[in-house]
Known about the structure:
Layout: H1 6-15, E1 17-20, H2 26-42, H3 67-70, E2 76-80, E3 106-111, H4 113-116, H5 118-124, H6 127-135, E4 141-149, E5 159-162, E6 170-171, E7 176-181, E8 192-195, E9 209-213, E10 220-224, E11 247-249, E12 257-261, E13 266-268, E14 279-286, E15 292-293, E16 307-308
Antiparallel strand pairs: 1-12, 2-3, 3-4, 4-14, 4-16, 5-13, 6-15, 7-12, 7-14, 8-11, 8-13, 9-10
Amino acid sequence: MAGLNAEQLASFHENGYLVIPDYLSSTEVASLLTEANKLLDNFPLESHPLTRFTTGDDDTADHVGDDYFLTSGDKIRFFFEPDAFTTDPDPLTGRAALIKPKHLAVNKIGHSLHTLSPPFRSVTLEQRNAAVARSLGFQDPRVLQSMLICKQPSIGGAVPSHRDSEFLYTDPPSAVGWWYALQDAGPGNATLGMWKGSHTGRKGGHILRRFVRKSSGSGTEFIENRGPALPRGVEEEQSESPTDEELEILDIKAGSLVLIHGNVLHKSEKNTSPRSRFAYTFHVIEGADGWEYDARNWLQPPEAGFSKLSPSDNT
């Protein structure tokens, strides 16, 4: 397979993201939605620690970082929306109670759908994605952090502006996100907002901070990045901050793939609409010699290492 064509590559390198319509067939989308609803319906609530997912809005805010989260890299686990709970804990149990049915309360499911769920595995570890990765310059593409993002109606939490390589840092940066719309995502239901060109040195595309495990081993935090801030081959230029005029609110149809450069600034708003906005996403990093995955990243590789982006290498 050929991967991206010259026009697509030029757009990705210029903007830091690329929307490819109809990347998944309607049958594939239906299969993933069926699997998603099955997972949401069948996970046991009684034994769940009720971990809520939030990255926080700034470097000093609280971030998710309990053991349920930190050990989820090779598992399928469920993380709740903070707004899905009562404000005060139950006086008998000491736990806050859900105010939504569980299938409408989950923020995301992660972080190894691509290894443990056959439908998600089939659309992830495939030759077509390997070809895309090769056309982007990857030598040994590795998959990590696969998750279903639910963006539940009326409570789906905002994700503040960030760069993905802050969370999945390699030395030098190499992450690229694969983001599949499983339902239409457009203005009004918390679609992606992307700052055009904000992955470049000219537009402040430097990785200046990193989301890591605390040195105590418990919890997470943001720290200053002291390693390379730009991917290999990206020039240092006189930098200026991205502007509001460069923010594009994407209108993405179900089945589309959005490729997201690890240094591009992007966000999504809270979903205040009556419609959910399901998306499946995973990331690819460079596994070849000369790139090092950092030992303090919140997500650490399983014993066998991160999955090679080729079905023949993962049988």
